[in-house]
Amino acid sequence: MTNPKPQLQAVHDLVQRYFIENRSRVLELAAFLDRVARASAGQYEGTVNTTDPDHRMDLLKKSLAALADPRPDKVQRIQILLSDPTEAPLESAPLEKSAQGVPTPNRREMIHCC
Amino acid sequence: MNYIDPHVHMVSRTTDDYQAMAVAGCVAVGEPAFWAGFDRSSENAFEDYFRQLTEFEPKRARQFGIQHFTWICMNPKESENVSLSRKVISKIRPFLDSPNVIGVGEIGLNRVTQNEVKIFEEQLELALSFKQLVMIHTPHLEDKLKGTKIILRSLAKYPEILPEQVLVDHIEEHTAEAVLGNGFWAGMTLYPSSKMSVARAVDVVEKFGPERLLVNSGGDWGPSDPLMVPKFGLEMRLRGHCAHDIQKMVFGNPKTFMAQSGKFRLSQ
Q1: What is the ipTM, given to two decimal places?
Q2: Cα angle vertex A106, ends A104, A111, to 5°?
């Protein structure tokens, strides 16, 4: 069975279709990073000036670097970067009932840079 | 274009959503058993929920011409409690005879613990012993890759499992190949602003082809949209895919999979 080959495959057509929404996503990311920087500098009431790294932001920044990598399959590589690399089931359930978006730091140490 | 949503938790949706889905072309839904948003207090609470899935939801759906099918199980989010899980599992058998129950699901893993694996495998055995279709929940976010690998290892322990009768759901780019490569059906749950998007789901179809791929709207407790399946169809159309392939993805494939249960018969 061959993969379906839609007619809309020209690069120009794809960029035309998806550029504006992805431009918006880049700006949302930039705004989020600025917001975190302001909070870290104590500019929001109730926040504390801190340089303590948040491991989630560390992985987010690595993911952004992966976007700039010219190799293909960016989504797959970033998915793996954000995944728990361990192989065995946990002996007991973690405190959080829901996943958090990135593996916890002790499991992350096993990650090799993509 | 008529469509089937094979995985949507209608208990979390208002009746207006049934109407909107019917207007958009939905003719049937599949609703697996899942977490209530809190941990239920006893096996009796699960029994009441199973009655809601087998008695009330089909009536609510029928008002708008939608056929409601369901799956019964102990869900992964509450499977850490082995004692309660086994009491719930002991209550499942009578519900398998309900006219709209087409299988055991959505079983699987949540945070990927040893207890969750134990209960997952016990329910696989239940499904096998009563010749039921199986729907599997793969964990979300950072747990998905690890959880999917462990699920596939568990499935491999049972050579009598027919892969074409198993749907491994919530797949994403990094788990699709392993699921499809092992002969299982692969479901993509589409979200408006988190996890898998419509555009990325069409990318997966373009990479792997439409065989054994399904899409669904999930309708779980996070922000979700019960119209994600027709929106997926629109995205395929805007990318230039032909009507035949779109129809296959939103209607033909779910029908093929679900019809393996002799109870899934569409009235239109």
Answers
A1: 0.86
A2: 85
